[in-house]
Amino acid sequence: MTHNGNRLVTFHGREDVRVDTYKFPELTMPNGKNAPHAVILKIISTNICGSDLHIYRGSFAVPSGMTMGHEMTGEVVEVGSDVEFLHMGDIVSVPFNVGCGRCYNCKHMRTDVCQYVNGDQIFPIAGTTQHVDCGAYGFNLGPPVRSVNTAAGWAGGQGDYLMVPYADFNLLRFPDRHAAMEKIRDLTLLSDILPTAFHGFAAPDWPAMPSFGVGRSVLIFGAGPVGRCGAACARLLGYGAIIVADYLPDRLALLEPHGIETIDLNDGVAIEDHLRRITGRETADRVIDYVGLDSRGFGSDADRPVENAVTSALLKYVSFGGTTSTVGVYCANPLAESADYKKGSMTTEWADAWIKSPRMAAGQSPTMSYNHGLMEAILHDRMPYLTPMLNTTVITMDEVPEAYKVFAEGSPYKYVIDPHGSVKGDVPHGLNPGNLSKERFTPLAGKPIALGSAS
Amino acid sequence: MTHNGNRLVTFHGREDVRVDTYKFPELTMPNGKNAPHAVILKIISTNICGSDLHIYRGSFAVPSGMTMGHEMTGEVVEVGSDVEFLHMGDIVSVPFNVGCGRCYNCKHMRTDVCQYVNGDQIFPIAGTTQHVDCGAYGFNLGPPVRSVNTAAGWAGGQGDYLMVPYADFNLLRFPDRHAAMEKIRDLTLLSDILPTAFHGFAAPDWPAMPSFGVGRSVLIFGAGPVGRCGAACARLLGYGAIIVADYLPDRLALLEPHGIETIDLNDGVAIEDHLRRITGRETADRVIDYVGLDSRGFGSDADRPVENAVTSALLKYVSFGGTTSTVGVYCANPLAESADYKKGSMTTEWADAWIKSPRMAAGQSPTMSYNHGLMEAILHDRMPYLTPMLNTTVITMDEVPEAYKVFAEGSPYKYVIDPHGSVKGDVPHGLNPGNLSKERFTPLAGKPIALGSAS
Amino acid sequence: MTHNGNRLVTFHGREDVRVDTYKFPELTMPNGKNAPHAVILKIISTNICGSDLHIYRGSFAVPSGMTMGHEMTGEVVEVGSDVEFLHMGDIVSVPFNVGCGRCYNCKHMRTDVCQYVNGDQIFPIAGTTQHVDCGAYGFNLGPPVRSVNTAAGWAGGQGDYLMVPYADFNLLRFPDRHAAMEKIRDLTLLSDILPTAFHGFAAPDWPAMPSFGVGRSVLIFGAGPVGRCGAACARLLGYGAIIVADYLPDRLALLEPHGIETIDLNDGVAIEDHLRRITGRETADRVIDYVGLDSRGFGSDADRPVENAVTSALLKYVSFGGTTSTVGVYCANPLAESADYKKGSMTTEWADAWIKSPRMAAGQSPTMSYNHGLMEAILHDRMPYLTPMLNTTVITMDEVPEAYKVFAEGSPYKYVIDPHGSVKGDVPHGLNPGNLSKERFTPLAGKPIALGSAS
Amino acid sequence: MTHNGNRLVTFHGREDVRVDTYKFPELTMPNGKNAPHAVILKIISTNICGSDLHIYRGSFAVPSGMTMGHEMTGEVVEVGSDVEFLHMGDIVSVPFNVGCGRCYNCKHMRTDVCQYVNGDQIFPIAGTTQHVDCGAYGFNLGPPVRSVNTAAGWAGGQGDYLMVPYADFNLLRFPDRHAAMEKIRDLTLLSDILPTAFHGFAAPDWPAMPSFGVGRSVLIFGAGPVGRCGAACARLLGYGAIIVADYLPDRLALLEPHGIETIDLNDGVAIEDHLRRITGRETADRVIDYVGLDSRGFGSDADRPVENAVTSALLKYVSFGGTTSTVGVYCANPLAESADYKKGSMTTEWADAWIKSPRMAAGQSPTMSYNHGLMEAILHDRMPYLTPMLNTTVITMDEVPEAYKVFAEGSPYKYVIDPHGSVKGDVPHGLNPGNLSKERFTPLAGKPIALGSAS
């Protein structure tokens, strides 16, 4: 096999991402150690994620020069000497969390908090060093403070090739290559947003994951791709009333034909009134935040950022005895106005929440806990609504900078990069395959902060 | 309100059920105690269950004169003085298990093993007295041995009216009368077979009910109404490969258009070969027995009863680390030839099973644990496949004896009795609304024992 | 049986409780409805709770004239006509939560959020009306806004007699009267603080309660009676490092002989340094707040109230992937200085917490979920450390006002009121049976707010 | 480091084990493949297990020449190139299950059913080839049928040195070498019998492990070392009535001072009468089989083998709604008289069990799921009763053949082999350190089959 370098999407500053070329990856850890447990993948599909937008906008601070991307599907093209169960030509999904498979947390399927793969990091905003029990591709916050266990600095995967460590442990192998390529439009979601959305349902109930959802009601904040995946997961799990709230009508419109109730936050009607109309109550059994950073406020605060808007809404709209999940990303936000929000502090109505006896969860998804089951569900046609809800379109590496821009403006597509032209023609291609006018997809010009665009 | 007696289906002996008339029920317990916590229902729909067939055939011994039926939906027409949250005119589903709501087990939602509602009973076969921690309408095995806590002797509900004790605790109220009547064909399943089928999925994982089924495989024995509900539950819970095995092709045919794989046991192909064709393995993650008593054997034993056929198959076809559920009813069987089976003993390949580390559950469903969520799922249109899979038809009281006969012969309908003519015309009515010839629905003449006919 | 009125502890204003006499209770709901499901208890023991201190200090606002007490053990002396399984002379523990046993939440053992027993209430601070899905004796916030389902206004139980509704459902019957009186000093804790403490361990893991704690570490804030019960529960569940932090050395001293590590917050050492000394890490797998309202700050803020001190500490000291519980009571606090805290708002380091993937729970305990198992553990001598840790002493009704005072000052006793002189002499009696000087038990004079005194 | 061969206990036929010398182990898999993920351990302690006795007696058929032992604790003396988190000199516990850490089951902590480490095996009795999803040291049933994924043939560990594959994943590192050696007498139990005993409590509730046991009752069959560990686990988990049944009074006597109720099966009293005396009921919430193969019957069958005696007793004595676990080993038994038992078939009273709604589990323990927590519990002194209950004594390699003999006869010791003389003098040493006469420990001469001797 020949290759001439590795193109990777690279962060150059706020609202400035470019495609730069790097050398071909090696079976080596970021800290220089040999990685006999690793493989090299040729990327088949690699998606732009809502959490990439936090970086793009500048609210999640990273160093200039960082390579991006953490949602990868690829083909094994090189195999380390201690890889036993993967082979050349296997098609695999990469969980966005890097896990070592050897620490206490990984053994307990908590790859969201692997104890070894990131270690001590320098945080760009504060310049502080902090120990971080987790790692992800394309989230190389700062140069890792090297120690024997530290391997931080995972390259991004929006590009041609990727090194994946602890490959036997980390990778999800698709059982049949042909069937995988037939459903690549859905399977590409397994690296992050579909399991991440699923985690919204499972997290508060861990380890009894996910709890008895049949017939229960769920209120979802955010109709971006993760929020839409959340609605799809609610369908898969047999939820009763499934309600999604957002400011972006084009995104909500993707959900309505599939048994999902929507709340258009532009309509001036209070959320509790919508809930009463839909469920007869002003609360939902489960409320999930798929927005995270960069949320607008509600009602009269709709045109300005209100950092705790969704966090507060979770506790306000959850039923007595219900559960909440915060799946959207929160971090110290250098763009915030108040000192509190600059460091990631949040204010909530804690006393009003306490009396309700809620159970709450927050944080990243342990992708590996969910991706196998979701793969089987896709391969057995259990989620026919996933394709129309997600509205995936395939783009080239050259289209990536423009795709970041329109995605941040609220485009109702899920953008999947196809660096090697692997995805066949019956899947929509291009930045706007439905030829929606910008007006049609309601760009957020002048409203840089948007609920639904976040994730 | 006027009424002239209470017609009830009554067991008169093997293959002999008749409609007899009794006096109107009172707010009184079977042991004569006042029941201020009870209500009287006017029955809207009351189904014939596969477990009624065990009685009908004689394999589940009951005394002649016992009134039958435990799957009731009705309207509240009389309310006891200590009923607070139910009112005249409410439409409710009756869980087939009677629960007191006041014992340790009921408080823990284990209404399948209520400690007070049955107590000591005289068993008809052995003539022995045994303490039984459970109770159900229409399963009045023998005269209860009266004690302070004993209230056994619950009347059957295939008829005009029914007394329901502990009504605030037991009854599931439908939130809207009009919506309930619109979906009565599906909601009538909530009194037993839909929650019972669901229990097949939840039982081994209790109390973390029901476990993470997304994408997993399940093998179901029995395509009778409960087995078909099991397939529907697997759909609702997002299972991957869903496989139903039976001898009755007309019942299997109801499932095939809805993403269910079927195994026709008449075809001479080994079950493991079918499994390998469908899933690539010879086992399934979960295997459920919806048959119980009266099972035929497999392969060369297809034409004779083999009491442990399905019990053994659960352990044979379950994956290493998988789970099994025995939902079908087992009891001492006076029709069995061997002394072992006459008293309900079973032989299984225990050593072969042990090495697989299975988790197993058996017994009745605690209906109340599941009926609320399933009601919401139906009301929110999450189970559009339920109606075509179940193939429900509505009959009159006069048609009941013939319905027992054709149901026992393998008719591919679910029979719902409508004693007061409450169910409107757009629902199929009659014993054979599709005008299937007997040949068409493969009657079991000469083969009195059938896998699929059991439940 | 004769009786001349019912003495009850009554709130007359901040730091002013008195014993007033009322008429004997009847089998009637607070809204006047008949209660055939109720019993009358003659109180054997009724404890002063840390949450009573919030009321006593004025931080939890209630109307003057409210009767107090929610931790009762008693003897059945009158039985309603729809009570079946309790009898005259039974000795029972009263869960502090009132539950109806008939709503969705009670059926799911969530008696902390019973949907019927409180309903709409007028809150004293704001004067607002709010629907509250829970109820408790002695927390009659304001006159209930009467509706068909509303029964708020439950009398306090620090006194001679108490009406308990839905008695078959609510009451825990001790199996043997003699054995119960022998262990009354421990069993009296079953009405609230022992199950409440246990809930700190079970709440984040519900319904898989309580998760696998063997060998894990737990950090407990508050060495008041609930916090000490929490340490006892950690012992019972096999936790490894069990660490309790407080400002009150006399309370900590009760724990040290029983395998509990303590952090004396007066010593000027940072909590993380204590944790590193004890566990080798700066975090614990589980962190529990048994303090609630009225918390002091840490370090340089030790002498002033810092409302979010413990709430923030939960997230700061929990491990990556760990769990937190907020068992201590939070409510709008009229004594708070800031507008935020006056309405119960809290600020936390949400971004720092998010990256840790915590699971969090808050709210009251569903006492009934735990009291039966804990009763059996006590009766089987599984908690020999409970008596010395709790340091219970028995007082008369006349001693109650002084007991509130010294308990609020930090007395290291658990005060149990014995209105009828039922508790025999081998149990310590009196306000200070160990003859500790006030100096010895470190009264909080001049430091009205205390971590450990809260619960 | 120097070494002159590797002494290992070797099976030479029924009741004939010897110490043979082999070459030093290498970092190579049994099928000859390189094992860069492996380490070599110098054994510190390696125990004789009850399941070794099944082999010794001949009821679990293995080939002559098989090396024995699966309960090892050791020091790392050689490290493969892909081992990252273990170092020379680390003291580690070896889970008896070999797991790859890379298959679906290992990722879900189901190392009892690892899909890769054993593969196809030739079974000695039947001569059949079967795929086995699990592996263990010292259970090399027959020459593996080699395939790409097959690595069966794990050497036994009763000897000087051991190769452990996938070492980062498999090994439990003790945090402090000195503390480990101080508690080696308890920590040596972590390789098998303590986690295995714990599994009896967790298995039926997986993945919500282990369920809420506080105050519940448990009936344990078998007072051998595993059964005694089961009693210790019940203490650790806060169970109420803990009841152990056996025929060997010396073993029962070890339990009685520690709050455990015992049933001496020699006393002619029915088990249900014992249960009623202890708990007031004839059943227990949980019933566990720590015996497995080689069980005697009960009552009049006490002097002969009754293969299904304990299996049947689980279902007979479990409460309505209770759980059972079969932890003792079952396999095809060439010594059985009946054809059924020769192939491992079992007959149980299935109908009587069904009505009780039991949940049942069987099979090996996934050691890794429990050993970390149990290690912490030991290191934090949470199980002071473990040492006296187990009655461990340390022996030399030379004493091994005699130890097998007296252990099979019912000796009330747990035998720990110390091949290198690592265990210091304050731990009891020798075959009979308490100088019990044979009469004293009730040898089973003439009664070759014994309940309590099994495990």
Automatic annotation (TrEMBL), chains A, B, C, D:
Question: Which top-level group of life is the source organism from?
Answer: Bacteria
Tell me if Zinc-finger is a UniProt keyword of this record: no
Keyword Isomerase attributed: no
InterPro entries listed in its UniProt record:
ADH-like_N, ADH_Zn_CS, GroES-like_sf, NAD(P)-bd_dom_sf
Ranges where the Alcohol dehydrogenase-like N-terminal domain occurs: 36-124
Q: State the PROSITE patterns in the record.
A: ADH_ZINC (PS00059)
For this protein, the record's Gene3D superfamilies field holds: Medium-chain alcohol dehydrogenases, catalytic domain (3.90.180.10), NAD(P)-binding Rossmann-like Domain (3.40.50.720)
Cofactor(s) required for function per UniProt: Zn(2+)
Q: Report the sequence similarity comment from the record.
A: Belongs to the zinc-containing alcohol dehydrogenase family.
Protein's UniProt name: Alcohol dehydrogenase catalytic domain-containing protein
